[in-house]
Design brief:
The protein is α+β, with helices and mostly antiparallel strands. The protein has 11 helices and 17 strands.
Length: 350
């Protein structure tokens, strides 16, 4: 009973001077339980004095350690050092190994140029598979020779490539057709601030220029491109590219007017001849006639019909060579298809 009372008094006054358990621990050189809690290093010495020492080793500042027998020692933290050594060993292991060269993906990959089917696909002739079928069918020519071997390499800047006899525009050329409204000046810039062709292509990075001209009051198709040689040939009289116009005139219209226009009309700057002439529509005295000619002199159609006695009320150019205006709306700009570009180049021998 005395021992029980002694234990009870010890719990009530654990740090008291008369605590026999505390005195025994001091004599044995062992720290009290609460002091041993803050002894992070597992040392057998007494607790460190001072608030800072207790804070560094306390529950908030000290790393978690699993209780161990025999002094509470823990394994040293070596994870970073171990990883660094492992990385160094791997680096030394693979440092002197020879570099492996992978084989070429296809024969002739080291050659210059691009594969023909890739060039055709980029030019808008279809997918690469479709372009390979064009080559297999013998429909593709490179510099005048039919190519049937897949993977043939070409230089799109130098080689002439044709599909079904039409030249493919493989370079960075642009070709547009504009349905010019009446009142628009046929220049890319106008110092007087009038509406001009350049207003329709202001968002193009590449500088374009017009192929030929239409007078301000004439509507219809006009071509825009950055291909200088093609533009030059399309407007040169040597190549005789035909242009077709629809003209609204007042009758009555005699039968021989067509023959007279084909035979030639004397103008102040020489004779002018029409290639074709026909009446498209007649409503009373109002006639709509079609005139085709290959000349490109200023106001040529208006001057010819006026000299024949039929001043033009309205004039529209409906085709330029093989490129037709069709149902393209007034003021609309469209990009020519690759087939249309090929037909234009064939027209002038390119």
């Amino acid at each position: 009973m005395r021992s029980s009372g002694s234990n009870s008094s010890g719990r009530g006054n654990y740090r008291g001077a008369g605590n026999s358990r505390d005195d025994k621990q001091k004599r044995a050189g062992k720290p009290r339980p609460e002091e041993r809690r803050y002894d992070v290093g597992g040392s057998s010495e007494g607790p460190k004095k001072g608030r800072g020492a207790a804070a560094r080793g306390g529950a908030k500042g000290a790393p978690k350690q699993s209780p161990q027998r025999g002094g509470g020692r823990t394994a040293p933290a070596r994870s970073r050092e171990y990883d660094a050594r492992a990385e160094e060993r791997n680096r030394e292991r693979y440092a002197n190994k020879p570099q492996i060269k992978t084989p070429k993906t296809f024969p002739g990959a080291e050659q210059e140029g691009e594969r023909l089917q890739k060039v055709l696909a980029r030019a808008g002739m279809g997918s690469r598979r479709a372009c390979e079928e064009l080559i297999d069918a013998g429909r593709v020519e490179v510099n005048g020779k039919i190519v049937i071997e897949q993977g043939t390499r070409v230089d799109p800047e130098k080689d002439e490539i044709k599909v079904d006899g039409l030249t493919v525009a493989t370079q960075s050329y642009l070709f547009f057709a504009l349905n010019k409204p009446a009142g628009v000046v046929s220049t890319m810039e106008d110092p007087d601030g009038r509406q001009c062709l350049g207003d329709y292509v202001t968002n193009r990075e590449t500088r374009l220029f017009h192929v030929g001209r239409l007078d301000t009051e004439t509507e219809g198709i006009i071509l825009l491109t950055n291909h200088g040689e093609l533009a030059h040939r399309l407007t040169h009289p040597k190549y005789g590219v035909q242009k077709t116009y629809l003209a609204a005139i007042q009758g009555p219209l005699p039968r021989e007017v067509g023959k007279r226009l084909k035979d030639g009309i004397q103008l102040e700057d020489g004779y002018a001849r029409a290639d074709h002439f026909r009446v498209v529509e007649q409503t009373g005295k109002n006639y709509l006639v079609e005139v085709t000619l290959h000349e490109g002199r200023k106001h040529i159609v208006r001057r010819m019909l006026a000299e024949a006695g039929f001043p033009v009320d309205k004039l529209v150019r409906t085709s330029f060579g093989p490129i037709a205006l069709g149902d393209q709306k007034s003021g609309w700009l469209r990009r020519l298809t690759n087939t249309e570009v090929g037909m234009l180049m064939k027209e002038v021998g390119l």
